[in-house]
């Protein structure tokens, strides 16, 4: 005989249907998802966690300050630590991150606080006393994400939170420090465009001659030849490429990368290469006033909005695997194979660490060495060998 156990969790709502029967929902920001599993069971905890993560928390509608979590977690708990961390303003602390990094980190950590302690314990991790945080519990949170990239990000977010807790005397040690993100998944992230993919995209959209296809060609040029993150590219405009003559494009692109804007205001300077400058001149009549790329309504793209729009243009060209991010990877691959060094790649793509550059230079070096050495495995498979001489 099963016994229903009521649990008190954030965002949990009990509502009767039109017949008076009780229903349980996860409710956030005016939306709800029904939870059908029996309350108090492991299945209920899993369904609850999935529902809360799916409902998310749009930045524009999220309560300001600590209003959301300060009511949910008692002092000295894992969730309470998150509240304190989200308000930290010092150098290299939470509020020094760019807006997109803050959003991603906060969403991920808040999801961790709502995950059940164990399959047989629906109490959320946010209620876990800090003294009981362990590497085992942190590893479980990390391994709940699918894919190496997602696990790596969650590990990074949890480690940043716990490191802050150590520095501010809330934790005696960082339980995430020695945890690995897990084995690599079968996928290798975003598909990297090949040169034939670029040629196919250009050929298709050049034939269309529509305003939308012209914009697609311009976007491809910016992604491939400016070396920018997407969040910087959608903000790029004439003001970033001023020349000596008013109204004319200059020879250099100058901007401050948004990813590091709150940490430092270092200007990134890159040449406006001839092929990109020619594209901007050719499509000058469709450029926006403040940004080169604008929507059909004349407004600048959001980062996510542009990604979805460009993906549609790839699909139209018969390239379902291709995306905006994969085009930047193609640029780094081509540069590395043409001899770009780690330091050059860092300058081209605004990378602070050589670790990302190593991915491309290592792959290029492997290809070069294999190309030079594979012929060393040499034999004539059709030549008969002579019998050994027995004397």
Automatic annotation (TrEMBL):
Protein's organism: Bradyrhizobium macuxiense
InterPro entries (alphabetical): DNA_brk_join_enz, Integrase-like_cat_sf, Integrase_catalytic
Residues annotated as domain Tyr recombinase: 186-374
Protein name per Swiss-Prot or TrEMBL: Tyr recombinase domain-containing protein
Keyword Cytoplasm: no
Keywords annotated in UniProt: DNA recombination
tRNA-binding is among the record's keywords: no
Record GO biological process: DNA integration; DNA recombination
Superkingdom of this protein's organism: Bacteria
A GO molecular function held by the record: DNA binding
């Amino acid at each position: 005989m099963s016994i229903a156990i009521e649990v008190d969790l954030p965002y949990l709502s009990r509502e009767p249907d039109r017949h008076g029967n009780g229903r349980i929902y996860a409710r956030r920001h005016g939306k709800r998802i029904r939870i059908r599993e029996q309350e108090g069971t492991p299945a209920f905890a899993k369904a609850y966690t999935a529902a809360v993560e799916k409902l998310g928390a749009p930045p524009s509608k999220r309560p300001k300050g600590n209003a959301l979590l300060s009511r949910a977690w008692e002092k000295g708990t894992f969730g309470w630590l998150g509240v304190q961390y989200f308000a930290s303003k010092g150098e290299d602390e939470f509020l020094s991150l760019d807006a997109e990094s803050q959003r991603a980190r906060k969403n991920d950590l808040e999801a961790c606080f709502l995950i059940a302690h164990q399959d047989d314990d629906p109490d959320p991790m946010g209620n876990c006393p800090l003294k009981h945080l362990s590497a085992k519990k942190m590893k479980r949170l990390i391994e709940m994400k699918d894919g190496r990239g997602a696990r790596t990000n969650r590990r990074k977010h949890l480690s940043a939170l716990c490191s802050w807790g150590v520095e501010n005397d809330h934790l005696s040690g960082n339980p995430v420090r020695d945890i690995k993100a897990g084995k690599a998944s079968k996928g290798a992230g975003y598909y990297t465009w090949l040169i034939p993919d670029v040629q196919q995209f250009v050929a298709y959209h050049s034939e269309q001659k529509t305003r939308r296809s012209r914009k697609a060609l311009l976007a491809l040029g910016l992604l491939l030849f400016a070396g920018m993150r997407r969040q910087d590219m959608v903000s790029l405009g004439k003001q970033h490429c001023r020349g000596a003559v008013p109204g004319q494009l200059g020879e250099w692109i100058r901007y401050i990368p948004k990813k590091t804007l709150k940490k430092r205001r270092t200007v990134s300077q890159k040449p406006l290469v001839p092929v990109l400058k020619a594209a901007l001149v050719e499509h000058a009549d469709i450029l926006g006033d403040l940004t080169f790329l604008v929507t059909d309504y004349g407004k600048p793209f959001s980062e996510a909005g542009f990604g979805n729009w460009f993906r549609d243009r790839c699909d139209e060209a018969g390239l379902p695997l291709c995306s905006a991010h994969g085009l930047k990877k193609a640029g780094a691959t081509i540069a590395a194979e043409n001899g770009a060094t780690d330091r050059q790649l860092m300058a081209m793509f605004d990378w602070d660490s050589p670790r990302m550059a190593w991915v491309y230079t290592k792959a290029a070096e492997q290809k070069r060495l294999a190309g030079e050495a594979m012929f060393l495995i040499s034999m004539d498979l059709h030549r008969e060998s002579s019998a050994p001489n027995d004397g």
